Amino acid sequence: xxxxxxxxxxxxxxxxxxxxxxxxxxxxxxxxxxxxxxxxxxxxxxxxxxxxxxxxxxxxxxxxxxxxxxxxxxxxxxxxxxxxxxxxxxxxxxxxxxxxxxxxxxxxxxxxxxxxxxxxxxxxxxxxxxxxxxxxxxxxxxxxxxxxxxxxxxxxxxxxxxxxxxxxxxxxxxxxxxxxxxxxxxxxxxxxxxxxxxxxxxxxxxxxxxxxxxxxxxxxxxxxxxxxxxxxxxxxxxxxxxxxxxxxxxxxxxxxxxxxxxxxxxxxxxxxxxxxxxxxxxxxxxxxxxxxxxxxxxxxxxxxxxxxxxxxxxxxxxxxxxxxxxxxxxxxxxxxxxxxxxxxxxxxxxxxxxxx
Amino acid sequence: xxxxxxxxxxxxxxxxxxxxxxxxxxxxxxxxxxxxxxxxxxxxxxxxxxxxxxxxxxxxxxxxxxxxxxxxxxxxxxxxxxxxxxxxxxxxxxxxxxxxxxxxxxxxxxxxxxxxxxxxxxxxxxxxxxxxxxxxxxxxxxxxxxxxxxxxx
Lengths: 356, 153
Known about the structure:
The complex is a heterodimer. By secondary structure, chain A is of the alpha/beta class. Chain A contains 12 helices and 14 strands. The longest helix of chain A has 18 residues. In chain B, a hairpin with a 2-residue loop joins strand 6 and strand 7. In chain B, strands 1, 2, 3, 4, 5, 6, 7 and 8 form an 8-stranded antiparallel beta sheet that branches. Chains A and B meet through helix 1 of A and helix 2 and helix 3 of B.
């Protein structure tokens, strides 16, 4: 479960989000299930064989497992046997092209198992998940939205190509229209193009920041610079053009468009950082902004776990951020704990912080 | 002993219908040789009463058609063609292998892998689709003890 809130006013910031494990040796199949389920805002994770699936299924809570049968290293039937043997009763959807084998029949007898025959359509995946997780199909009608202010007519299509298909992009070439759209939708992410980044970039981002105080705001740099950048005033960063999937899905979607506040019983967790380390400063800035928003609303659960395990770059900035967030949350009456990588966890500057 | 032609016929007919169902394109069995760009060859190994490899050769466009359907993406990256081909081989082999169970033949197949080089010897089935030709090479052997059972059915 995760926590951070670059929230939009019309989105619930604290939700119980089901966790779903996708097990298949084919990345294509895992990604197809992920694409089908992403619009529900589920917490999705992958495993590429049965052995990895057993390790994940028995070490964490899952609400549903999609499990392939024929896989290398450990097949799905053996994995299911070990998962059930460990007392894990998570419902399992077997996904396979073979329905009549003795192995599949015996797997179904292990209990809590339904069967989905390959090839499946995205809608078949959704219907299965809706039934087992009691998901509300109406969420499909209100997808996460981002705002794009562009000068290049090709940019909306290029951006759509590197984001999950369910993301709604409100694209306009007029700053006035962009502000109207921002007011109407309260976007959690803004990307803008400008012909003169140095002269007008800060001005545009300042105007947008006023309308969207919690959003991630990024400029697109048509010169294609790959230099690392840092947040500067209202601008969270500059993205190179053309955008690729690493930046689109791996950074913008993962850190700004996913449902970002997850509550698991009494624990709230952050999404953690995903993406190239050059973009870490923007994430940290947004995280701090998110914590401030949460403190204002006082809707934090008592136990807050902030996951920065994968963050080892720029340790001084992370240490400073952790200290600030810890103070802010304690002042708000919460009790945060932090998950940090081994290098940061040993930092003497964080001796006053609870680290798990 | 090589596969009985009855099995091959049944196997082939399931492949034709399943290929149509999977990618929604019309499929015809053909023996004409058509010059096409090299396809993506994928092999799976059977074990049990039937053992040995089955090899599929798919045109890239057909493999991408499966990717389009699975990902709901009308314009998938060509790099995904190999993933599409291996999954298509997996699906078709799985569905068609249910024919063997009909004959009381116990067999399982392993994970698909891309095959490079010359195709292995075996019964060759060629299919034509709107997206190009599909070649199927059945190189499996059936255990002699199962022959009578199969013929009885």
